Amino acid sequence: MIHYVTTPHFYPIGTPGQPWGDDERAAWRAAQKPSRSYEADVLARIEALRASTDVVAYAVIDHQPDGTYPMYAVRSKAWDDALPTALVTGGVHGYETSGVHGALQFLEQHLADYDGRMNVLVVPCVSAWAYERVQRWNPLAIDPNRSFVADSPCAESEALMRLVQPFGDKFLVHIDLHETTDTDDSEFRPAKAARDGKTTSPEEIPDGFYLVGDTEDPQPRFQAAIIAAVEKVTHIAPADAKGEIIGSEVVAPGVINYACRDLHLCAGVTRAKYRSTTEVYPDSPRATPKQCNDAQVAAVRAALDYALAHG
Questions:
Q1: pLDDT digits 0-9 by tens, 167-218
Q2: Would you say the C-alpha torsion 95, 158, 123, 297 has a positive or negative sign?
Q3: Which of 171, 177, 137 is nearest to 157 (CA)?
């Protein structure tokens, strides 16, 4: 099933056809109000993991007057530099809820399964300000997942790059946890078009889970292993009438590819042999919040298990 979402003709901030200036960005930021708590939802769960994991404070992001946000990664307690290493990231887009909660659930339920076999570094919520406001951008109206680039203008992206830089080429696998939602078409694409002084039109929202591989090194068997694990939990998104998902060719069931480094995506932040971005569809009538979180966990486990088995 494909869902069609009607996009508003005009975004309520800015003048159609004119890119935003400082006033429009300030108006957009003022309209973003917190509706949930990073401290209660994320930091409290990380705090509870201190006895069984290593919790690493890697940044404090200052978004005054809204506040400051301490950023944490969680890593295997039994870290061994002789073992292969994996990176799991969630909440690069703060509104993509199961990415955050799926990463936390993996930490709570399965991280210890990899002790002695693989080092795992997990960043559950890359974008704390956006998590609280159920937003895609940071407060400067910058998309973190287009900002993994040298001299990044996005504090969230820059902090994550600093965290992983010392690891060099040690990562064997990186899986980045995302969602595709109805609000991608009803809110976030119109906002981007307004910000950039462009136009937009409705797009088909795929009903189901899919993956984004990297065109630079797509690793199709790796992607297929993740799909096989996830389809035991929730349904996989079909291709549309053009054989595409969100405008990209479906290269295998539930799999499309992007040029991750060229697009400055989080999935291109390492040189890991195995890289994938998950996309869960939480607005599906066929999926519950629990299934969405479970799908993210299944994807992480399948990615790590495949990397361990195939090196």
A1: 999 999 999 999 999 999 999 999 999 999 999 888 889 999 999 999 999 9
A2: positive
A3: 137
- Residue-wise DSSP of 6-44: PPPSS-SSS-TTS---HHHHHHHHHT----S-HIIIIIH
- Given a contact cutoff of 8 angstroms between Cβ atoms, the answer to whether 246 and 221 are in contact is no
For the question of whether the overall pTM of this predicted structure is more than 0.90, the answer is yes
Q: Which helix (H) or strand (E) holds 101?
A: helix 97-109
Look up residue 23 and give its amino acid: D
Cβ contact 296:103 at 8 Å: yes
186 contact partners, CB below 8 Å, separation of at least 6: 5, 6, 7, 8
Where is 289: in which H helix or E strand? helix 289-310
CATH number at residue 158: 3.40.630.10
Return mean pLDDT, the chain.
95
Give the range of the structural domain holding residue 158, as residue numbers without chain letter: 2-310
Domain count of the chain?
1
Residue 6 has pLDDT above 50, yes or no: no
